[in-house]
C-alpha cells in the first residue's frame, strides 16, 4: 500500500465546500426559495444524516451568490435562556463585525445595562462578549435590543440555529415566543431552525398552544438516493486516481445503510489506507477495522442499559429494523411484551434507536450504524459458539 498527502475527499467533521458535498440539490433549492421569499424554515433530520452540512452548504451558496450576512450557531450545549442569548450574540458578533466595522462598539453601548464583558478567544483572538443575564426581563430586553440592531442593518441576514429543540429543556423559556414576535419586525432577517429530536420539535412547532405553531415551512431530509451516492463515491475516488469496484461501493452503502456520516466515515477510512485499487476484500478489512476500533465504546453501552434494553437493541440490530414488536420477535429474543415496549420507549429517549416514518409503517433502527453491525456480528458469533 502506498500513502498520499492529498486531502481526504471524504470530510466527516467540517463542511469543505460544494465539491466534497454530495447531492441535497432539491433541499438546497427549497431553502434558497424560502430565503428569497422570507419564509422561516424548520429543517428536521435524524442525527448524522447531513443536516448541519446542508445548513453550511445553504449558507455557502448565499455567501457566494448574494450579499448576505450568514450566522450559524449550535445550542445543544446550552441550558438556559441566558446561555442562548449569549451564544446568539457571540455568533452575530463573529459574522457581522467582519462586514460592519464598529458593530461590537455599538453593541456594547446598547447593552450597557447588562454589564457586557469583553474578552478575546485565546486561540483565535476573536472578540467575545458575555452579558450578565439573570431574569426573564433581561432575556426580553437583550433579545429585543439585538433584534433592533439587526433590523437596522442595511443588508439581508440569514440566521441558522442548530439543535433548536434544546430550548424545550430550558426552564420557563421565553426564546420561542420572543423570536416569533420578531419575524415581522426584522424583514431583513431570515431564520432557519434545525433539530434532530422529532418529538420535541413536534411539540415546539406543531402544538397549537406553542408560540411557533404554524410559523415556519418544515423541511425534512432523509437518506441520499443510492445511485447518486454511488456515483459520488466513485467520482471522488477516481479524482484521486483510485479505482474502486461497483461491488465494493454497493457493499459500503448497504453496510452503512446510506446514513451520511457513517458512509463518509467509512470512505474516509478506506481512502486513508492508500489503496490504488479497492475491491470487496479491502472493504471487508475496513469493516473489521472500524468495529475493532470502537469495540470498547460499544461494550461500555452494555453497562448503561438494562438486560432487556440490551436484548431489544440487539434484536433490532439483527433484524436491520422492526416495524412492530410482534409475538414472533418477542419469542425469538426471549422478551416479554410489556417490558419490551417500555424498553423501546427508553431506547428512543436515550437516542439509541430512532423512529423513521414510512408511508405505510413506522420503522425502528439502531441509531449508530456501526453499533448495529457490531451487535449483529456479536450475536452471530455467540450463536455459533452455542
Structure write-up:
- The chain is an alpha/beta fold and 386 residues long.
- The chain has 15 helices and eleven strands.
- The chain has helices spanning 25-36, 51-65, 81-96, 103-110, 136-152, 175-182, 198-206, 226-239, 246-256, 260-272, 280-304, 307-319, 327-332, 337-349, 369-385; strands spanning 41-44, 69-74, 117-120, 127-130, 157-162, 189-195, 217-220, 243-244, 277-278, 353-357, 362-366.
- It has a five-stranded parallel β-sheet, sandwiched between helices.
- β5, α6 (175-182) and β6 (189-195) form a beta-alpha-beta unit.
- α5 runs parallel beside α6, α12 packs across α14 (337-349) and α12 crosses α15 (369-385).
- The longest helix has 25 residues, at 280-304.
- The protein is globular and about 65 Å long.
- The two termini are 39 Å apart.
- The relative contact order is 0.11.
Element order: H for helix, E for strand? HEHEHHEEHEHEHEHEHHEHHHHEEH
Cα radius of gyration in angstroms: 24 Å
Secondary structure tally: strands: 11
Distance between the termini: 39 Å
Number of helices: 15
Helix percent reads 40-55%
Shape: globular
User: Per DSSP, what share of the residues sits in E-state strands of 2 or more residues?
Assistant: 5-15%
Structural class: alpha/beta
What topology, given as strand order, has the largest sheet?
A: 2-5-6-1-7
